[in-house]
Design a protein that fits this description.
The chain is of the alpha/beta class. Helices cover about 45% and strands about 15% of the residues. The chain contains nine helices and seven strands. Helix 1 packs parallel to helix 2. The radius of gyration is 17 Å and the shape is globular.
């Protein structure tokens, strides 16, 4: 699955799944740009580890909910590495709360990062991919909740559901340019966003009971999937969602 000569931009690349993706793509030979919002030290640590192994890494700061921010990520990546081949829309937030308590500000924050950010990052990346020619690949880190309802998290679910349809629609529109776009939908993964749940033994046992494989996923499980999907081995895959969830969706009767 060599990615030698490829350049990848990962939003939300400083922690959890994003950090694991950056490290894995770099091991496959890709030059990587790690975007961060607030965790500069973590991003620098990941980048230093990559460069110490002979890889190439660039750290950039951006608020992906701002169009100018994602456009800058793409332009600075191209200025540094000369091209762009892979975009991983990984940045995401969730603010669980009852439907009747959701404020306009909370709604705008979540949709801004989880859906708007992915949309306009893809737009900026596709403009570059078309200009340079040769196709490319966009991976959206979605969630099982693009299909699986989650009470008390309606905005997050709506954003991920929107990401699912965005991926399906763009797959047809971008195919003539040789650009593939695929969603990866993680289940329960051991990341900072799930730290509170995993710190509670009762909640963890209840969660494990819903997962046929009987374990919580690791960021590396998602990173391994990304590495395969962006490689030539997956060149006939576009417009779909790959669930990486230990069988959670099957157990829920959703798939």
């Amino acid at each position: 699955m060599s990615l030698q000569g490829k350049v990848a931009l990962i939003t939300g690349g400083s922690l959890g799944i994003g950090a694991a993706i950056a490290q894995r793509l770099a091991r496959e030979g890709a030059a990587v740009t790690l975007d961060y919002h607030t965790h500069r030290a973590a991003a620098d640590t990941i980048a230093a580890g990559i460069t110490s192994q002979g890889g190439k890494a660039l750290v950039l700061q951006a608020d992906v909910s701002q169009v100018a921010g994602v456009q800058s990520l793409v332009s600075q990546t191209v200025q540094t590495f000369g091209r762009l081949d892979i975009l991983v829309n990984n940045a995401g937030i969730e603010e669980p709360m009852p439907f009747l308590e959701v404020t306009e500000a909370s709604f705008d924050r979540q949709i801004g990062v989880d859906l708007k950010g992915a949309y306009f990052a893809a737009q900026a990346a596709v403009r570059q991919l078309i200009a340079q020619g040769g196709g490319g690949c966009i991976i959206n880190i979605s969630s099982v909740h693009e299909d699986l309802p989650m009470v008390g998290n309606a905005v997050y679910c709506a954003a991920k559901g929107g990401l699912r349809m965005l991926t399906r629609t763009l797959a047809s529109e971008l195919a003539p340019h040789g650009i593939r776009i695929v969603n990866i939908a993680p289940g329960a993964i051991a990341t900072p966003i799930n730290a509170a749940t995993l710190a509670d033994p009762l909640k963890t046992r209840a969660l494990l009971a819903e997962i046929p494989l009987g374990r919580i996923g690791l960021p590396e499980d998602i990173a391994n999937t990304v590495a395969w999907l962006v490689s030539d081995q997956a060149s006939y895959i576009t417009g779909t969602t790959l669930f990486v969830d230990g069988g959670l969706m099957v157990a829920a009767g959703t798939l």
